[in-house]
Amino acid sequence: MVSLLLVVGVAVAVFVGFNIGGSSTGVAFGPAVGSDVLSKLGAAGLMAGFALLGGWTVGRNVIATMGGQIVPAELFTLGASVGVLFFVGLALLVSNLFGVPASTSMTAVGAIAGLGVAAGNIDWSVMGRIVSWWLVAPILAFWVCAVVGRYVYPYLDVWFRIDQTEGPLIEYRRVGSIPYPVAGADTNRRELVSSVLVVVIGCYMAFSAGASNVANAVAPLVGSGALATDQGILLAGGAIALGAFTIARRTLDTVGNGLTDLPLLAALIVEVVSASLITFLSYLGIPASLAVSATMCIIGLGWGRATRTVRLSDAAASAVSGDARDPSGGEESAMSVNALAADPEDEVKKIGEEEPADLQASDLFDPEATGRVVMLWILTPSISAVASFLLFRFVPIYG
Fold it and tell me: How many domains are contained in the chain?
């Protein structure tokens, strides 16, 4: 006989996975859909498959951490598991109301930590390792992309510029009744390779999202023993797929969002760096936020690109002398991060030769929107931890 509490727990887990699929699909395949390389239906199918693959492989490590290492698995009674998942779902609801993607990983860990503190049984060494990576990962994401933006991005913009020709990218011919794809009549090799690369990177992003987020939906239920690990992964994967085929269609309509309006090349660099970082952390069993890492990649890439207007030696000399003016003797140097959307050039200028005005084509990100996002990234896990502590402190339904 299946208990009503288990049905509620599964329903909340499905709700969490459904929302993860809705938001992550847009992040992973927004560039591919926005550039007409991939249809929304194709993006949903790829998201469903690669998110499940990420959860089935690397995601097991994150489930193990959240389902029994932060707090002992015996604390996860069915009631406690439903309580933890409730706070994750609540964070998703709040973030949707504010129009900001919440860090479900951080919120879930906050709820589990609240349970552990209330029960007086939490492994602070594991929590310390997780929080340390929460601090290191965004900094690492920023500096990796800052280096790419300063030293590599302009060359990539010349070498791998993605231009689209008229007509369909792919056409289908038939051998008998069997269709097979061929390049469109006007499609050149560079466009075809670039388009395939856009889709491959989207699949990698979907894999990373599944690896890090499957645990957010089912780790408490797996820790309680209500679901086996394989069952939990399949449940979360199905819920993510449901979100990808339904509500993700709306998020796919917009390649950018309130934070940024990125060129396609910049979006792909952000996806590769952030997905690689989150996949690595998932392998270590660290629940981390893909949204946080991606945003820091965006800011780092733009900042690094903008610093090409000044040589390091000149900047150091100006800092030592206290002179804030441009080292070349011009007006005050403005290192703006509004740099990535500048018009591409056929020849890359050397560092120190680019004009700040050349890097002002459009805003890279909205500081007010970014501040709101960062505030909610801090606020949602904090609220989750405090609310979880109060619930389990006064209603001790844990084991």
Answer: 1
Look at residue 349 and tell me if it is in a domain.
yes
Which residue's entry shows tokens 């998932």? 282
Indicate the DSSP class of residue 325. B
Q: Which residue has the higher pLDDT, 213 or 159?
A: 213
Under 8 Å between Cβ of 145 and 273: yes
Place of tokens 């805003």: 363
Is residue 202 situated within a structural domain? yes
Q: Is 347 exposed, middle or buried (0-12, 13-18, 19+ CB in 10 A)?
A: exposed
Confidence of residue 164 (pLDDT cuts 50, 70, 90): low
What's the token pair of residue 376?
């909610």
**Could you tell me if residue 59 is inside a domain?**
yes
C-alpha to C-alpha distance for 332 and 325, rounded to whole angstroms: 4
In degrees rounded to 5, what are phi and psi of residue 136? Answer: -75, -40
- For residues 96 and 251, is the Cβ–Cβ distance under 8 A? no
User: What pLDDT does 276 receive?
Assistant: 95
- The pLDDT confidence band at residue 274, using thresholds 50, 70 and 90, is very high
Reference 64, options 146, 123, 144; nearest CA is 123
**326 part of a folded domain:** yes
**Residue-range definition of the domain harbouring residue 84:** 4-394
**Tens digits of residue pLDDT in 208-232:** 999 999 999 999 999 989 999 999 9
How crowded is residue 206: how many other Cβ atoms within 10 Å of its Cβ? 29
Give CA 23 to chain center in angstroms.
9
Higher-scoring residue by pLDDT: 93, 337 = 93
Distance CA 56, CA 193 (A): 29
Q: Rounded CA gap, 113 and 381, in Å? A: 10
